[in-house]
Amino acid sequence: MYAPTRFREERAEVLAQAIDTIVFANLVTPAADGLVVSHVPMVFKPADGDRPAVLESHVARPNPHWRTLAGAGPSVAIFQGPQAYISPAWYPSKREHGKVVPTWTYIAVHAHGPLASFESEEELSRHLKELTALKESGRAEPWQIEDTPAQFIKGLERAIVGLRMTVERLEGAWKLNQHKSEADRSGTMVGLAASSDPRDRLVAEAMRQAEGERIG
After folding, report:
1. Quick check: is 20 in a domain?
2. In what order do the strands lie in the sheet containing 75-86?
3. What is the structure's pLDDT at 216?
4. What is the number of structural domains in the chain?
5. Separation between Cα atoms, residue 190 and residue 17, nearest integer Å
6. d(CA 94, CA 97)
7. Alpha-carbon distance 21 to 206, whole Å?
8. Predicted confidence band at 215 (pLDDT cuts at 50, 70, 90)?
9. What share of the chain is helix, strand, coil (3-state, %, to 5)?
């Protein structure tokens, strides 16, 4: 990933938190006849003792992705966070000298590593419970797999194949106008926060957090 130093994020805990928040990834694997891409939710498990960090997901059995792994090179999981167009009209510097142009802000995390498949009933059951808990745990009445007839779930498990990436490298880019003046950053946050697009408001919040870290 291209990320100038000012935009690069290398803190493991920040990258892990972003993955847990985004969850959904573009999973890309090089195959003999080109790239294979699947769009999947992924559960991140930090390194624990001798066990390296891993990302787990699953695909439908007819999806050829899991059949292309033998001899394949390292895969990459791309987690796209909030992103927004930035209008130069938000910059006070526009009124001062006019030497401003539009740009795009974004948060992205890439995870790199070899990918393997798993099909055991025990592993698939555990994975599905962990994935469900990741998104249901904050609800007032969280849904659980146990709420559904066991035989129905077993039938669905037979229709999927698990995927597990051993994470060898994490990299992130937080391109949030860090290179702009304090006044232009402030104007950007005001403009984004006033937008009717919820994605813009998410970027405004990410910028506010970055400003807090800058001050701290």
Report:
1. yes
2. 8-9, 169-175, 103-113, 75-86, 24-31, 34-41
3. 53
4. 1
5. 25
6. 6
7. 13
8. low
9. 40, 35, 30
**Total residue count of the chain as it appears in this document:** 216
Of 210, 207, 215, the closest CA to residue 103 belongs to: 207
Query: Over the chain, what is the mean pLDDT?
Result: 93
Residue 184 forms part of a structural domain: no
Query: Which tokens go with 59?
Result: 């695909």
The secondary structure of residue 180, as a DSSP letter, is S
Residue 135 belongs to a domain with what CATH number? 2.30.110.10
- Give the Cα separation of 136 and 216 in Å (integer): 33
Tokens (6 digits) for 195: 């937008």
DSSP H helices in 66-148: 92-96, 121-136
pLDDT at 78 (0 to 100) = 98
**Tokens linked to 192:** 């984004």
> Cβ(104)–Cβ(83) under 8 Å?
yes
